[in-house]
Design brief:
One of its GO terms (molecular function) is pectate lyase activity. This protein is mainly alpha-helical. The protein folds into 2 domains: 187 residues, Glycosyltransferase (Alpha/alpha barrel); 161 residues, Glycosyltransferase, CATH 1.50.10.20. It contains 12 helices and 12 strands. The chain has a two-stranded antiparallel ribbon with strand order 1-4. Strands 2-3 form a two-stranded antiparallel sheet. Strands 5-9 form a two-stranded antiparallel ribbon.
């Protein structure tokens, strides 16, 4: 029996080493940035003990801005030549680049934290703490976070729920406050600041929730940092109620351990809105258009066909009417009325409400107990 156990352990170690050796080749080649933000959370603990993990960690340090944050849309594991390294170094003081968009900064803080835990190398700890302090500094007094900081102008200064930017930050800070791995190395003062930042963020969420005729609904993808009103971002991202960003906001609130009456009311209002605006009996149909391009359209489900409900990305603030928008900034009420590029280059429908409903049932039971 002992021989069998030893053989299993040897096989496991061999598999781990082989994986690490393959990683040394795979991670060095340049890839889309999404490969980095998807890969980083899935790396196992053993990986962080390898030379390749340290090489990537040094790249993370290289890309960290003077502000403490990181730029977005960078495939950080790529092996750089000297010229590329010099270009990265020359942009460290560019205040327009530090952001929480597209999971930038939160991804790097987590990677450095795991690397420090595995290696005990102090420079990774210092860089992670600098990144966390950047998040503290970037938070507005009203509790919101801008998409970019300290970028001074443009829609980048709005409170940003878009693509879960603010929620990603709050989830990381909540884990820090709760002394969860991989952040257990952090000092008590950081944990206290993290909890204070989360509390302020929750207040911002409550204050930005849109009301229709006195009833709580959901949130816009971005809100004005001064008035807290729904705000425009890119030309095709008009003030609206967001069926995409609001789902994870509600999930975050439902995960809070001791919800206040205000938080409970916020959740109930949002869930009722998701029920009210769900789109039934509609599905995507993919086809090749007359120009030979891959395209899709929305068609009715067949009789007897099981189709999950959908939610539009944007609804009108006044009457919850789904709308779509091209780069001309004009509202249209049928997806076929916008051009191929925006129709296929943006997510106009989603099924995020389903996870809200599932979590809500669990949350209600827990609330009663």
């Amino acid at each position: 029996m002992r021989k069998i156990v030893l053989a299993c352990i040897a096989a496991l170690l061999s598999s781990t080493l082989t994986h690490a050796q393959k990683s040394e080749v795979t991670y060095k080649s340049k890839q889309p940035y999404k490969s980095w933000v998807k890969m980083a959370p899935k790396l196992n603990d053993d990986f962080f003990k390898t030379k390749e993990a340290i090489r990537i960690g040094d790249n993370v340090l290289l890309y960290q801005q003077t502000t403490g944050g990181w730029p977005k849309n960078i495939y950080i594991p790529a092996e750089l030549d000297e010229k590329e390294r010099e270009e990265v170094l020359s942009e460290k003081d560019d205040v327009n680049q530090s952001t929480i968009d597209n999971t930038a900064t939160t991804t790097e803080i987590t990677y450095l934290s795991r690397l420090y835990n595995a290696t005990g190398i102090e420079k990774y700890k210092k860089a992670a703490i600098k990144g966390i302090r950047y998040l503290f500094e970037a938070q507005y007094d009203n509790g919101g976070w801008p998409q970019f900081y300290p970028r001074p102008t443009g829609y980048y200064t709005h409170i940003t729920y878009n693509d879960d930017a603010m929620i990603n930050v709050m989830e990381l800070l909540q884990d820090i406050a709760n002394d969860k791995a991989p952040y257990t190395y952090l000092p008590e003062d950081i944990r206290k600041q993290a909890q204070a930042a989360v509390d302020k963020g929750i207040e911002c969420i409550l204050h930005t929730q849109v009301k229709q005729n006195g009833k709580l609904t959901v949130w816009c993808a971005q809100h004005d940092e001064h008035t807290l009103a729904p705000a425009k971002a890119r030309a095709y991202e008009l003030p609206s109620l967001s069926g995409a960003e609001s789902d994870n906001i509600v999930l975050f609130l439902m995960n809070l351990p001791h919800p206040s009456p205000e938080i409970i009311a916020s959740i109930e209002g949002a869930v009722n809105w998701f029920k009210q605006v769900q789109i039934n009996g509609l599905k995507r149909e993919y086809f090749t258009n007359d120009e030979g391009q891959k395209d899709y359209r929305m068609i009715p489900c067949q009789e007897g066909e099981a189709c999950d409900p959908l939610w539009a990305r944007f609804y009108t603030l006044e009457d919850n009417r789904p709308f779509f928008c091209d780069r001309d900034g004009i509202k249209r009420y049928d997806l076929s009325e916008i051009g191929h590029e925006r129709r296929n280059g943006y997510s106009w429908y989603n099924n995020g409400g389903l996870k809200v409903f599932k979590k809500y049932e669990q949350w209600k039971k827990k609330l009663k107990n």
